[in-house]
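Please go through this protein, sequence plus structure tokens, and consider how the sequence yields the tokens. Keep your notes short.
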Amino acid sequence: MSHLSYMEKLLDGAEVEWKKLGDVATLQRGRVMSKGYLNENPGKYPVYSSQTANNGKIGSIDTFDFEGEYVNWTTDGANAGTVFYRTGKFSITNVSGLIKINDTLNLNYKYLFYWLSTEAKKHVYAGMGNPKLMSNQVAKIPIAIPPIRVQSEIVRILDTFTELTAELTAELTARQQQYAYYREQLFNAEDKGSEWKTLGEITKKWYSGGTPRAGNPEYYEGGNIPWLRTQEVKFNDIEETNVKITPAALKNSSAKWIPENCVIIAISGATAGRSAINKIPLTTNQHCGCLEIDSTKALYRYVFHWVSLNHDNIKALGQGARGDLNSSIIKNFRIPIPYANDSDKSLAEQARIVTILDKFDALTTSLTEGLPREIELRQQQYEYYRDLLLSFPKPEVASHD
């Protein structure tokens, strides 16, 4: 069915009225509320600001400025023009604006929210280098107003897509939390009489890497030696690398062969603390640190799961402006070794933990690859139908201020 015929059927001969938002609604700004004010006046009523995380909520206080149904938009900063649907009792800060529809008008708040979700960003402008969408500009935004029954049907359809995306996102979050919980429980040191060892104590050898001089074709063209960079270290098994180097590169740089099944930890910059296991012999750049684990003391996959669990703790040990790690920091990080005085029993328990975590990891990886893709497809589908359902013929006069 064509776009035009679908819209004609939905409208069923009814007219679409075009008005500027300022003619059909009252606009106002929020008030200044510092972090100290929020801390000094705790309560149950949410305060919304310019951030997009947590639906814009930055805290709760003991009073509220607004009650009822509204559309809320961000006025300043990187998120200028972001739109929210609000209900209940709440307050907003001074980098937010609020829209109250005139009582005499047949305009659905949810419909207005969906309309502005596509339109508001188009009116954002640069104010002193800072993106802005102030009330005077919002008031000029043209609004297509079909009959209320048409608005309600559009809202019903778009709400369905929104709810499905929310359910998929909640499913992904729940599975990740479940995995994190069981991983922490399996590493519980008190249950197994574990002894805390440093990573250095269970490591046979530490390897670092190097970068062959960039731009030298002799070092890269036709190369077949896998060369790992930190952006490929993503809590994963490394089966291949994006870049290969030549024997000449290996001979004339600090890059060196690293045996398979090492625990690799990124030690520099934004990726610091991330880990991986190389399932093939390879070389790395200087921003990777590699632990060859002593197999008589610990299983490399047990160590990998532990350092993955402790990514944030390891990253927090970084030094300097870039938060860099080094061999000393890594080797001094502690790990619980179960039944450390009985090697066979210890390795058997580690193997049991690894088997469980590998299964969880496989499930979570499947979910974290599959569900985000599904969420992305649903979002694209939602945006397609949103644009379709909100594409009313626009009279020429409505395009002028």
